[in-house]
Amino acid sequence: MKKPLLEFTDKGIYCSKADVYLDPWRPVQNAIISHGHADHSRWGHQSYITHHRNVPIVTHRLGKINIQGKEWGESFIVNNVKFSLYPAGHIIGSSQIRVEHKGEVWVFSGDYKNEDDGVCTPYEPVKCNTFITECTFGLPPFKWMPQEEVFQEINSWWAENKSEGKTSVLFGYTLGKAQRLLKHLDLSLGKIYTHGAVENMTEVVRQLVDFPKTTLITADTKKEDLLGHMVIAPPSAHGSSWMRKMVPYVTASASGWMTFRGARRRRAIDKGFVLSDHCDWQGLLDSINATGAEKVICTHGYTEIFSRYLREQGYDARTEETQYEGELGELNPASKEESEA
């Protein structure tokens, strides 16, 4: 039986012909990294390759490492296997990893979305024989509104809170979601204040994208300074002593999970905005169709349901276990990503 070009092992997705792992979750010699979230870029590998826009993000998180940056579409050969990176549209510097050997092409999508968010390089479909896809939101109820409509809702919510003399506290993932929020907030309504984790990561990516001015909340920041203004913070800040400085405040979360009211109630959030850095159900299907792939491997998310649907549509689809979280990290207050950012 022919050995597959990519295998799922206890260390990660492995290309034995090149002795290279894609987004490995245990320390390995050679790693190609799709993006900077902690579940995909981990410490301990001997060498890292990623897109050059992801290099400052990964080094900020992991410290001094042996890392190379590549450009979109730039081919690099390892033991006669050709690798290249293409935009995933997930967060700044996020890539799909294309692997080619003797005419066979696999694409590992990492995490991705096919809506242009105005912050990261937009998703680009890549033709392949086998496509490895996430399915974080692989259920029909997940259907995103256009980003412009979501931000109209967010800015209207901010304006209403301001008129009532309250501080608006908006929770979003430290890397990716927070910067997307920052980029599209209406600055005519007031100032944007940030939690330390958000401020630190935003400073890293300012060299890559032009973001509005923010003000770090410190011990010297007074409640009166914040009234009527916007605060962007990681979900882990909710319910912490840090929030006392915001009183009186109104909270909101920006996440794909806000599709379900129960998710908002469980986190005791006043308002939920459905905004995800992953594809919705239709986005996943459209993206897979655009690859022309005959085989699809489903990882992290609603894998069984989504793969079964794909098989009903004629794909050769199956599931594989990984240690990726998708957007589950947004619901986990102890998220490693937030604690390190």
Which structural traits does this protein have?
341 residues; Ligase-associated DNA damage response exonuclease; 19 strands; 24% strand; alpha/beta; Rossmann fold; disordered C terminus; globular; Xnuc_lig_assoc; six-stranded mixed sheet; Metallo-beta-lactamase, Chain A
Your description of this structure?
The protein folds into two domains: 193 residues, 4-Layer Sandwich (Metallo-beta-lactamase, Chain A), CATH 3.60.15; 127 residues, Rossmann fold, CATH 3.40.50. The termini are far apart. A seven-stranded mixed beta sheet has the order 7-8-9-10-11-18-19, covered by helices on one side. With 341 residues, the protein is an alpha/beta fold. The chain is globular, with a radius of gyration of 20 Å. The longest helix is centred in the middle third of the chain and has 17 residues. 23% of the residues lie in helices and 24% in strands. The C terminus is likely disordered.
Write the element-wise H/E pattern from the N-terminal end onward: EEEEEHEEEEEEHEHEHEHEEHEHEHEH
Strand order of the largest sheet: 7-8-9-10-11-18-19
Mass-distribution shape: globular
Beta content: 15-25%
Mean pLDDT: 94
Query: Radius of gyration over alpha carbons?
Result: 20 Å
Number of strands: 19
How widely separated are the two ends?
A: 45 Å
CATH topology of the largest domain: Metallo-beta-lactamase, Chain A
CATH architecture of the largest domain: 4-Layer Sandwich
The helix/strand class is alpha/beta
Give start-end ranges of low-pLDDT stretches: 333-341
The CATH class label of the largest domain is Alpha Beta
Helicity, as a percent range: 10-25%
The main β sheet shows up as: 7 strands, mixed
Looking at how many chains there are and whether they match, the oligomeric state comes to single chain
Question: Number of helical segments?
Answer: 9
Q: How many domains in all?
A: 2
EC number: 3.1.-.-
Region (Disordered): 320-341
Enzyme class: hydrolase
Keywords: Exonuclease, Hydrolase, Ligase, Nuclease
